[in-house]
Amino acid sequence: MKILLVENEVRTAHYLRKGLVENGFSVDVLGSGTALPARRTDYDLMVCDVPMGVARLVQFDSDRRPPVLFLADRAATQPVPSSGECLLKPFAFSDFLARVRGLLHSTMGGNPMMLRIAGLELDVVRHRASRDGERLDLTPKEFLLLSLLMRRSGEVLSRAFIADQVWEINFESNTNFVDVHIRRLRAKVDDPFSRKLIHTVRGMGYVLEDR
Q1: In terms of pTM, does the model score above 0.70?
Q2: Claim to verify: residue 200 and residue 151 sit in the same structural domain
Q3: For the chain, what is the domain count?
Q4: Range of the domain at 100
Q5: 88 and 148, same structural domain?
Q6: Strands 128-131, 120-123: parallel, antiparallel or unpaired by DSSP?
Q7: Would you say residue 77 has pLDDT above 90?
Q8: What would the pLDDT profile of 79-119 be if each residue is shown by its tens digit?
């Protein structure tokens, strides 16, 4: 699931983005000097502080605007818009994450968002994975890696792209960092099953597809 985080305070933005990414979400961060991404219609949720959020909301078409969770200071005098839910700062990340998941769940009519490919299922709201009905015990990074592969099913992803999206690091071609993590993920997702889904494309990267 994609979240647009609109937050001018760098530390807060980094803290929230890190926590959301570790819990399987894809996050774009928008600061005061950052232009709104060109693709405006594919976000599942906006999380934004009140002053910036009000200004940024008008840049979305009203019929395609994602649901909004506003973050407001307790001492702030600016009213919170009625177009979204509000969480008062300071807050515990666990409370923030619960509000994010609850809002996503309710706006989808009570149905958790599921990614499904050939018996492999990923519940991105409840953070659960299974294959052919068997629960997969994934670490947070393995869950994020698998969700990336499933969201881009059929697309060959380079090692550099995977390293950037999952670990936010620059990939060095003389290391096997990504390969090691793919191998660990395969041990859980593919090895116990006859049909393999994660494939290596020599010289290019990895792809998840049902061949």
Answers
A1: no
A2: yes
A3: 2
A4: 2-107
A5: no
A6: antiparallel
A7: no
A8: 666 667 888 888 999 999 989 988 887 765 545 467 889 99
